Amino acid sequence: MRILLVEDDKPLSDALSSSLRRVNYVVDCVFSGREALTTLLASQTDILILDLGLPDMDGLEVLRKVRRNAPALPVIILTARDKTTDKILGLDAGADDYLPKPFEIDELLARLRVLERRLGTANSALIQVGKVSLNTQTLELTVDGTPASLPRRELMLLKVLIENAGRIQSKQQLESRLYEWGEEVASNAVEVHIHHVRKKMPKGFIKTVRGVGYCIPVAGA
Ligand code: CA
Fold first, then answer.
1. H or E segment at 50?
2. Where does the pLDDT of residue 221 fall: very low under 50, low under 70, confident under 90, or very high at 90 and above?
3. How far does residue 113's CA lie from ligand 1's centre (Å)?
4. Using one digit for the tens of pLDDT, what is the confidence trace for 48-94?
5. How far is the CA of 94 from the centre of ligand 1 (A)?
6. What is the 169 CA–ligand 1 centroid distance (Å)?
7. Number of CB atoms found within 10 A of residue 31's CB
């Protein structure tokens, strides 16, 4: 299990991450909302632990952005705000759980185990389109029965296309799923990714709809 810990209080971050590592979690620590968003794109995160009071943006804003790209990522909010309204705002913004500070590490560990159990049951998210199958949780990819690998961003591109098989995705839609707002994007980035993904896919798997976007046709559609 890989956890992304977003907590700008360095001593607290250090204490939490060492406790989490002791029970064998892989922990990436970041200290701002911006770093959280870029890290989520660049690495495979299983669970997000998110502090609300961050130096560059509010944790709830981070959470809303995260939810656009990762609707199913388990998120636990940590915060010193313990008013019921804050709790409701957090849960409404898409948090799975909410832990008011100060808390006992054991309680955090117990709540992580709950989320993990939920992940385990959701782990069968296997989508098969023609000869290609992709587990949208683990991102395991097989082509024609053989395991295949792609760089993270290209895998995410393929995931979006497969999840929306039969529907055209515009270049702008794909860009918004692959890159955060403010991130430097070359004008031909999506084309380049598509080109690389296609090399690993069966012939004709991804169709270009000229002037509109890209689509994985589904049989009979
Ligand atoms: Ca804070």
1. strand 47-51
2. very low
3. 24
4. 999 999 999 999 999 999 998 888 899 999 988 777 888 888 888 88
5. 19
6. 38
7. 18
